[in-house]
Description:
The complex is a heterodimer. Chain A has helices at 33-44, 69-77, 81-87, 124-138, 186-190, 255-258, 261-272, 318-337, 347-371, 376-389, 489-494, 519-529, and strands at residues 22-29, 49-53, 66-68, 89-91, 93-98, 101-107, 119-121, 141-145, 148-155, 158-165, 168-179, 195-210, 219-223, 232-238, 242-248, 279-293, 297-298, 301-303, 309-310, 429-432, 435-438, 451-456, 470-475, 483-484, 501-504, 510-514. By secondary structure, chain A is of the alpha+beta class. Chain A is globular and about 70 Å long. Helices cover 60% and strands 0% of the residues of chain B. Chain B is globular. Classes of the chains: A alpha+beta, B mainly alpha.
Amino acid sequence: xxxxxxxxxxxxxxxxxxxxxxxxxxxxxxxxxxxxxxxxxxxxxxxxxxxxxxxxxxxxxxxxxxxxxxxxxxxxxxxxxxxxxxxxxxxxxxxxxxxxxxxxxxxxxxxxxxxxxxxxxxxxxxxxxxxxxxxxxxxxxxxxxxxxxxxxxxxxxxxxxxxxxxxxxxxxxxxxxxxxxxxxxxxxxxxxxxxxxxxxxxxxxxxxxxxxxxxxxxxxxxxxxxxxxxxxxxxxxxxxxxxxxxxxxxxxxxxxxxxxxxxxxxxxxxxxxxxxxxxxxxxxxxxxxxxxxxxxxxxxxxxxxxxxxxxxxxxxxxxxxxxxxxxxxxxxxxxxxxxxxxxxxxxxxxxxxxxxxxxxxxxxxxxxxxxxxxxxxxxxxxxxxxxxxxxxxxxxxxxxxxxxxxxxxxxxxxxxxxxxxxxxxxxxxxxxxxxxxxxxxxxxxxxxxxxxxxxxxxxxxxxxxxxxxxxxxxxxxxxxxxxxxxxxxxxxxxxxxxxxxxxxxxxxxxxxxxxxxxxxxxxxxxxxxxxxxx
Amino acid sequence: xxxxxxxxxxxxxxxxxxxxxxxxxxxxxxxxxxxxxxxxxxxxxxxxxxxxxxxxxxxxxxxxxxxxxxxxxxxxx
Lengths: 534, 77
């Protein structure tokens, strides 16, 4: 039996009964994972927002189910990481089948010593319910359900919105507008912004199936299985005895006919065999596109997540990419709104997230091209590679059933100093006052979120931090107040020895490294990372 | 490294005959898969991106004008 989704109450907005537009510094549109993550991130930095959503509940169906390590680290920073770990299905192994045989298996995180695994599977509706709860608890997110933007007009210093509610329309004047309203973004359409990219001529059926099954907690991908010949099938385990199955259907499939529950039931039964009882929880048929906006910032309007870019589902790069957009923009908006950074800092959102979107689009397009061969040559190569992969490990790197989401690593961010690659800080196990702890829990956790990670060792003191920076000391020996790198993994993963230091941004990304840290150089790198011209 | 362009096969006729023998009795689709498997094995053996790119361009030019660059970023709605 399916649990009833939470219903969030519509409240008649006060602006309906007042003359003139309501002034709101920051308006987020779309209470999906991306909008909610951004609202929560901003609230934890002390920034209030109004969050509009035309529905009054969470997503229908599992939708985004694979939450990547980097996304889990972001939710760790936002105080929700443990909930994902407790409820979600942790997996890191994948198996690829071809025809009746297993071609090979892979392990996404062979390395130990990280708080979060490679992936956790969890229905999107659970994540959304927790995010709503967390946003509400901050007291800084004004969640407005059943309210949608009916029209918008951009102004030099903000955006004028007409908001439709069950009780009529009202006007809002927002200083900043964050469009997190998904693939069919009405804000994107309202501004007449074209989406550039390609459509893939294929259709997929998603079924959330409730059953008790003995499959292991692994990602299983079939090319041309006997139960669904000529097409691919993907199986993922989710919590609550729900299994997610994606059937490739081909371009000629009739989407309406394929949604017929009797037909879906027959497909699933062919896959599971006659003796496995199951119930259908959710069915959807989709096509997909790989495309993006030319720019994500348009004056005072920012686009995040699917509203800004879309990818194929292979690789779990849609939801994870969107959450990382929010991670990137939240601290920048907070810094500008607090007056700590110039408005130009916000241009770095485009500089950093456009390449990330391109990387996701590139990888998911390539996966789709492998999974759905476009011509006889592509089919021959794909089938030859799959056939070889069963016995020849050399062919396995060419098998592409989805290149699973990894954080983007930028080599030329305008915020970085000294040509350092802008990558998320690696996690590592540490001891604090003798207690097991994780390094990343201390990055971006205090003050304005900038952290100087100062490495110390026997006889080598940690670097000093200039004013305004939180210093976290990583020591090779047990020292009060420091994180003891007892396994040596922090030192190894940062490749930073005693006396060296790393400047980390509020989104836990590396901004600068110092072999011989000096206060002035650290302060300059800090200023540059906040968008101040050198 | 650059692509070796001088003749290097010790027994060209023998190699060609072996290739034809491998294709014998295969239908069109299986023949394509055989060639594809062979290309994958040899490409891995070479393992040098510049050599492979040079060979690919040379092969393409031998049968047809050069391939167009990747998929065009045409507006899609």
